[in-house]
Structures are given as structure tokens and as C-alpha cells.
């Protein structure tokens, strides 16, 4: 993406120093906060969430393209989540070799055999993109992935526009300041959670935020919790372990913790293998899935967000299965796909391996993992593919074109790191929410965006992985 701020500003160390302090204070004042790694479960000590000193230029048309396609991605994820045959066919090769996906899939199968059709579905997701710099000089919106479980930073992203607007104010760039779009995903998340809670229809029932053992990103979640409390909807933060101790299903499959009924379980954990620290965590996941409580996401929607599903969706004719009479929607979604290639056993997968080995810098090798830092690039990718090329283990991965965004200068502000000028790459996310009730979509919206920026030297890694930082688009 382009640079929003002229070079001169970076060249004035005194100004930069002053601005860094102004920016940090502004983020603390706005509540753009995290707990520290040393004390992840206490708010005695907090620190600003890492962010860029300046916003990053994003072409307006591309920003609107990302927001506009989001409601279609919502529908797509929801349809996939209910398409038993598609999930089975698509994930068959993956679950043969990937234990985590296999475990999730077995819950999906178990629920199917028990035969329950939940009447309310709630999705909160984030589709992430980079702007690919094509040979003809134009930029094109390409999806990195879609997160259908624990999509984070909607809370903090609701507060970051004020920080960058203030920074631009201080340097007298009032025109640019106006081009930072408003953002309030936290409000959108809570509206969707509230809608699902209302449809569940029990005034005394609570919403559980299922959280990790380490709660560094608690403030991001608090923004959403607090919006719910304002609506008089009670929320409780719980871990798998707590629900194991206190949770149960009653005779008609209502979920209770102690004697409190649960209307909605909102997952901010459960997306990584290490979130399931014991067999009991898996028991809890199954119990919640069996229950009448609304799961955000349910197991089908979780599986719909796997990278294997993303790869299969890019095959010719597959999107048409979900939008048979809507070629414009198919076109709109497909325009955001990068090249995605199977590594299943057989001639097609062999071709993908050959292609990657011949030009390792053009591709990314991705396992079915979330949370950043799992993908494999360059010479390491070649080593892994050489080792796995004749083994079914390669089916745990997909291959993807490496997207090539244009670097822009910025300064990353992070605790204990000198604020140096870096060449940076950005990733734009669009937040989607939807609620389905008895087969009808009663809510389907794009509720905001997230821009994250990292130093170009890092191939991979999100904010929680300690690589990317929060940013804002400045529309140009
Ligand atoms: P995760 O589920 O771990 O977040 P992602 O698919 O989002 O996995 O990949 C993590 C990071 O790796 C992204 O934030 C991005 O920086 C980088 N990345 C992933 N896919 C690509 C790609 N196709 N081209 C360039 N960078 C990529
Ligand atoms: Mg990601």
C-alpha cells in the first residue's frame, strides 16, 4: 500500500520523537490497550497495543470492494457450514493426516448422527486481504484467509481511528485526517450477539465469552462485553476448564453453568490445538455443540474457515454450488481469490509440488492452523516439500500464491522497541456478522474493518504473534 505521509516527516527526528509520545498517550487515553506477557491475567499493569505511528494509504475503491463483498462471504460461510457432503468431501484428505482438523471433524460427525438442527446460527468473522501489485502496475484485492472463529481486534479497532486522527491533527494534516474512515466493529459484534441472545428467548440466560488461559487481549473483548452489558445482557468470561467443572446439559439440552442458563457461547479460544489442553476441553466442546445454546461459531462454521476449504473454493465451478443462480456474486467473491493449489496425492498435487519447488519465492505453504507464525516460505518451504513430496503428510497443507504488496514506510510503536522507520506491508480485514433463524438470514452485515501492518522483513505473523501492529487505512 502507498505511504500516507511524506518522507520529510520521517526525516525530522525531533518531530518523530514528539509524535511518538503524543501517539502513545492518545492510544492509552482511547483504551487501545493490552495486558503484558508477564501478567496476562491481571490489569495492574497494562501497555498500549502495538500500532503504527501513521495511518497507511489504501485506495478507496479497494477498501469499498473489501467491505462490499463481506455480506457474500457471510452467506458463503453459512452455506458451507450446513453442507455436510461438501465438508466431508473437502476435508477427507486433510483429516487423514491432520489430527486437529480430524478432531474437530469428529465432533461435526457425532452431532450429525445425533441429529439435531439448531434453529439459530451466529457468525462473526473476518476476511483478510493484501493488495497484490500486479505486473501492469495496478493493485488487486486478494484474500489471505477468512477467520470464522475468534476473529479478533474488532474492539481495539473501534478506538484506533481517534488515535491516528489526533496524530494527524498535531502535525496539521487536517485534510488527511478526514480520510480515516470511522470504524466500530465492537458495536456490530454486540448487535449480532444481542440478536442471537434475543432469539434464544430467555431473559435470564447469559452470554459466555470462552477465553484462553492467557488473557493478554482482554480489552479487545471487554469493548464487546461492555456493549452487551449496556443492553442489559449479562456476560461471563470462562475457560474450557471452568465449563468442565460447572457446565451441564439439562433434559432438553439447554446448557447451564452452575444454575445459570447459557444463551450464546462466543468463542475467543478453541482455534489452536494448545487451547485444548486436556481431553476435558474436547468433552466441553462436544457438550456445547450438543446444546441448544447458540455457538459462535458452531462446528460446521469453524470447519468452513479452514484453509483447505479456502483452497477447494477456488477450484472451477465450486462457488457456483453455493450461488447457483447468482453469477454476479460468484464473480465478486472469485475476484478476491489468489491462486490456491491442492497438495492431495495424485497428479494435480504432484504438479503443485513441482511448481513450488521450481519457484519457491512465489508461493506460501500453509498448514490448517490459525494464530500466525505457522506458514512456511522460501527455502524452508522447499525443504519441507522435498521431504514430504511422496508422503500423504503433504495433504495437511495447501499451497498458495504469495501476494506481493507494495511496501510503505512507517514507524511501528511497540513496548521496549526503538521506534525505527521500516518498510512495511499491510493486511486489510473486513468484519462480517450474521444471524440465521429457522433458515432465514435475519442479519447480514459488514460491521467494520481492521488494518494491520508489519515490517516487510517478516513473511508471517499477526498482532498476537508479536509481528504485526494495529493501523488505520487512510483512503486515497
Ligand atoms: P493465520 O491463520 O496464522 O493468521 P494466515 O493465512 O493469515 O494464517 O497467514 C499469516 C500471515 O502470513 C498473514 O497475516 C500474512 O502476513 C502472511 N501470508 C499468508 N498468506 C500469504 C500469501 N498468500 N501471500 C503473502 N503473505 C501471506
Ligand atoms: Mg491470519
Cα gyration radius (Å):
22 Å
Q: Biggest β-sheet: count, sense, barrel?
A: 7 strands, antiparallel
Overall form? globular
How would you describe the oligomerization state of the chains in this entry? Answer: single chain
Low-confidence stretches: none
- What structural class is derived from the secondary structure elements? alpha+beta
So how many helices?
Answer: 17
Bound molecules: adenosine-5'-diphosphate, magnesium ion
Number of domains: 2
Which strand-content bin applies to the residues? 25-35%
Give the integer mean of the pLDDT values.
96
Number of strands: 22
Helix content: 25-40%
N/C terminus separation: 10 Å
Compose a concise summary of this entry:
With 476 residues, the protein is α+β, with helices and mostly antiparallel strands.
